[in-house]
Amino acid sequence: MNGRGIDACYIGIFTAIAGLAMILPSAASAAEIRLMCPAPMRTTIVELVAQFERASPHKVDIVHTPSSFIVKRVLGGEPFDVTILTAHASDGLIKEGKLTRRVDIARSSIGVAVLAGAPKPDVGSAEAVKRTLLGVKTFARNEGAESGIHMLRVFERLGIVEEMKAKTIAMPVNTGYVAQLVADRKVEMAAQQMPELHAVDGVTPTPLPAELQLIIPFAAGVSSTTRQGEAVEALLKFLTAPVAAAVLKAKGLEPPR
Question: Which residue, among 186, 182, 176, has the nearest Cα to 203 in the 3D structure?
């Protein structure tokens, strides 16, 4: 995007924020919302929360931790107001009585990243992905995360499990973004959720083709014990407003359908 395009984008975002500030409910006193957020949504939520805080009297305390840790902490009785989790995980906590409801806020997909400036990988079809993966000398994925598990399924489908095992680094969960290994020139290519790839400077992300894709819906979940109901509703309204869609796209996500 050129300079004029970027300026126009931000002018549009700030105009939308100003308009949204006029429709957000006012509060007699500011509330503090405790929100738990996993890595795939980290940079998106940080940006949206910053905008929300500028447009409302409320503040948001963000706890950054892996999804599995969020679920364990919520089930363990830790106080919170809002969770950001996959729709599936949110539904599980609703069944456990820990959440009253969920509000879908984004759709994430899986992609691969190479060093910025390197030739864009051909991943336009399953066969192209197979050729590309076999052609790279080193590869990285998550160990245990949804994107890493999905890539193992992709290897199986393409019949290249053994070939990839010999050149793949499996990065443990909660140790950073996998694409950082590409930026640091430690591996040639990495796979992770698109917003996580976008969070790393110096790499170029590209989504997998539809036939090999995994779409992961993310949702905001409302605590069954929150005492910040009005503030939480204002935040949910903000996260699903048109201004949020521009941020989602910039971070490698799509709005919910």
Answer: 182
Q: Which of 73, 78, 200, 98 is nearest to 140 (CA)?
A: 200
Dump pLDDT digits (tens) for 121-166. 999 999 999 999 999 999 999 998 899 999 999 999 999 999 999 9
Instruction: Specify whether 104 is located in the same domain as 114.
Output: no
Q: What is the pLDDT of residues 185-237, one digit of tens each?
A: 999 999 999 999 999 999 999 999 999 999 999 999 999 999 999 999 999 99
Domain count, the chain: 2
Q: Which are the contacts of 223, defined by CB distance < 8 A and separation ≥ 6?
A: 79, 80, 81, 82, 83, 98, 99, 100, 232
Task: Please say whether the beta carbons of 29 and 78 come within 8 A.
Answer: no
> Is 69 within the bounds of a domain?
yes
Output the domain CATH number for residue 148.
Answer: 3.40.190.10
